[in-house]
Amino acid sequence: MLLYRSAAWFAKGLREYTKSGYESASKDFVPDDLEVQVPGRAFMVTGGNSGIGKATAMEIAKRGGTVHLVCRDHSRAEGAKAEIIRESGNQNIFLHIVDLSLPKSVWKFVENFKQEHTLNVLINNAGCMVNKRELTEDGLEKNFATNTLGVYVLTTALIPVLEKEHDPRVITVSSGGMLVQKLNTDDPQSERTAFDGTMVYAQNKRQQVVLTERWARAHPAVHFSCMHPGWVDTPGVRLSMPGFHARLGARLRSEAQGADTVLWLALAPAATAQPSGCFFQDRKPVPTHLPLARTSSSPAEEEKLIEILEELARRFK
Ligand SMILES: NC(=O)c1ccc[n+]([C@@H]2O[C@H](COP(=O)([O-])OP(=O)(O)OC[C@H]3O[C@@H](n4cnc5c(N)ncnc54)[C@H](O)[C@@H]3O)[C@@H](O)[C@H]2O)c1
């Protein structure tokens, strides 16, 4: 089954996730959708110092929004902040150093953040694909701790902050790679199964899609969406998937193309005309399962994911 899913997904990717896929999809875009100015609105972009996150933060800054960059590495993040201020002329760029794989730090960060700031839009962009099983200082598997638990804790902590504001939104940068995975809650930290970083990452991205659907049902005041940016030439892909990067080469999307749907979901009035909880690709909601792939999960399996995350989120508060 995994072989079928992977082959169907790769064929789809070559048609849709590449630069030519973007060029073809963008013929249907409404150009005015992103002709907006957003002074007075505040946006948090995790991993905003690199790749898709940086391209997103730059475009929001150019439209006058307040940008909160949430980054792990101080010196790289300072460079990105300075570049965004210089290029956009927007001084309202704030930097917060947080390692999203450490849930205690994430809780503490939000406690401090909400004393001083408001927030309209959270963009869960930071992500990683660590190809060997590594543990955080809390003993958590690193991909799961960053991509799933970190996103869960940050979003859960910020929902009450977002609910106070006008037109609140949460966008999570998932991946089309999640299409090859069915939600699996049996071994969330890969303790008992052979470790395959690509599949662990794809499982985390599936978990983000399930979380987005659940949040949308539980919090109707906030508009939730998740999305696939396409296959994008970023430092992350170069580092974690060198073979894929070399093979796809010039067919990979630019960072600006990868950021397009993130920006549309964060900025365009048209985005919130779509139901909350959907998965987007090139400004359109798209199915979260490949045909015949048997990747749907039951409500009980989804509830189990929430129980696991709640338990860990409370343990590391
Ligand atoms: N590039 C692609 O083809 C592609 C495809 C599908 C999905 N994505 C997703 O897009 C998002 C952005 O990735 P990218 O390709 O721009 O890669 P990137 O490596 O350039 O950017 C990822 C950012 O996340 C940050 N980050 C990682 N772990 C962190 C942690 N523990 N705490 C704080 N920040 C952390 C990194 O420092 C970096 O700033 C990711 O969620 C990725 O999974 C990318």
UniProtKB/TrEMBL annotation:
Question: Could you list the residue ranges forming a coiled coil in this record?
Answer: none
Query: In its UniProt entry, what is this protein called?
Result: Dehydrogenase/reductase SDR family member 12 isoform X1
Annotated organism of origin: Bison bison bison
Question: Pfam families, per this entry?
Answer: adh_short
